[in-house]
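re: that chain from earlier
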Amino acid sequence: MAAIDPLTAGAVFIATAATDAVYVMFTSAVVARKRIPAATWSAIWYLLSSYAVISYTENAFYVAFAAIGSWAGAYASLTFLHRPPGGPPVGAAPE
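^ sequence. v structure.
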């Protein structure tokens, strides 16, 4: 097994965390039926995910860092979007 470069591992972690955060924002925009924000988040999502894919394909061990970054990004995004139970979902139209 090749040595792990901490800089590359960190970059993959950050790229996948950002990718999942953007994916959550994309999903929120889709649920809210906001076309321009959804399309924008989608474009950013693909730009970020391409870095992660290119980075870890040379060494499959980087997939672990991608998975951890993915989890962290989704968790942080959902924490940011969290609303008290019973309230309207983020992006819902006002009643």
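The helical segments are 6-31, 35-56, 62-81.
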